[in-house]
Every structure is written in C-alpha cells, then in structure tokens.
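Run DNA (cytosine-5-)-methyltransferase through structure prediction, thanks.
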Amino acid sequence: MNVLSLFAGIGGLELGLERAGMTVVGQVEIDPFCRHVLAAHWPEVPRHDDVRTAVAWWRSRPRPAVHVVAGGFPCQPVSDAGRKLAQQDPRWLWNPMADVVADLRPEWVVAENVPGLRTRGLATVLADLDRLGYAARAGYISACEMGAPHPRKRLFILAHPEGQGRCPWRAQRTGPAAPDGQSEGGHGRPGGRDRWATEPDVGRVAHGIPRGVDRRRALGNAVVPDVAEHIGRLITNGAVSATARRAA
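Sure, done. The structure for DNA (cytosine-5-)-methyltransferase is below.
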C-alpha cells in the first residue's frame, strides 16, 4: 500500500507505516530542518513544502497510486496549551488535508492530533470525511500502550470509503462512547516494554548544542513510530480480510 504523508515532520508516522508493510511515495513538510531529515532517510521519495499546494504538486508529476493519505495536522489551534481558536486559527490546516483526500480518493485516511481536537474540531473533521463519502472512527492511543515509558496520548482518526468494508477498529474497541458516536479506549499493543530502550535523561535546555532546538522541536512534534505501526497493521490486516471476503 502506497502512502502520501502530509505534515511529515521527521517521519515518525512513515517509519511505523513502513514497518507495517506500506511504502512511502510522497512527503509534504514545510519545515526546512525536517525536510533535511526526511531527505537523509528517504532520499528517493519526492517531497513538497506546502500542503496547501500539495494537490497541484502531486498532479504535476509522474505519480504512483496513493492508497493511504496520512498526516498529523498542526495541533496548535486545538492544544490545551494554546489559544484554543480551532478553525479560527490560521494554523488550522485540516482543510487542505481534506482537499488532498477529496482529490486523490485514497482507500484509507489516517489523521493524528492532540486530545484537544476532541472538543475543538473533531466534529468538523468527521463531518468533512462523511461529506467526502468516508466512514470514520476516532479514538485515543497512548505511547505507553505500545510499551513506551511515557504516555503521549494522541487522538487518531481512521477512515475508509463507505461500503469498502468494516473499519478494523470496530471489532477491537470496547471503551466509552466518544463525540459524535465514535468510540474510544484501548487498542491493545503489539509488544511490551522490552521493545523499548531505556529513555535517555535529556535536559530540556539546548544551549551550546548545534541545532539542538530544532531537533527537540521536531522530536516533540513527531508521531511515535510504534503507535503508527499499530495503526498500519490495523489497516493492512483489515485490507487483507476485506480482499479475502471479496475473493470468497
């Protein structure tokens, strides 16, 4: 399955999806430092610098099919630590991501954000996906559910076209109801803490460290690869099951 990654950052989402068997075929990232990191790890993958012009960029070049559009759109408009302006914040960039989905019509959409999206924009995201003909599920996953020594709770939205088959989250989620009829709760985890190295004791001040601030900011914005891998395996396993049902 081919992935077009939006708001790619330093590629945490891509790392996890690749571990689940997917192939990254395009990346969109505005930050020059992050693009430098992406170029070092995915030198063969084409990159673009602005999600707002991503559709025209992708259409203007020879391109493979895109099966998955994935991205963690900026969290500042909905974060509890911010001004909480949601759609009124100029950094609200779900709309350009929705434009990419509308134009490319992928088989799957993966969106990630902070928990504040639940009350400051999730209803809009789900309504847009519904308008585009996608069935969506939303729920939380924490890094510690994958065995990490820290929580890093994030809200993920997983969507596929209506009628394509059952969303793989439906059979696994048993938690309380989330907004707009979506469910939340535990996802299970593919491994335990022994998969993780001891968390380093990294100081929060970067004085005297070349590009230390850029590195810490990029890491702070990144998706934990093990979480992305779990999402990717839900998709690939679900896609395989759907294919088997159609073949039968």
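The CA atoms of residues 133 and 161 lie 6 Å apart.
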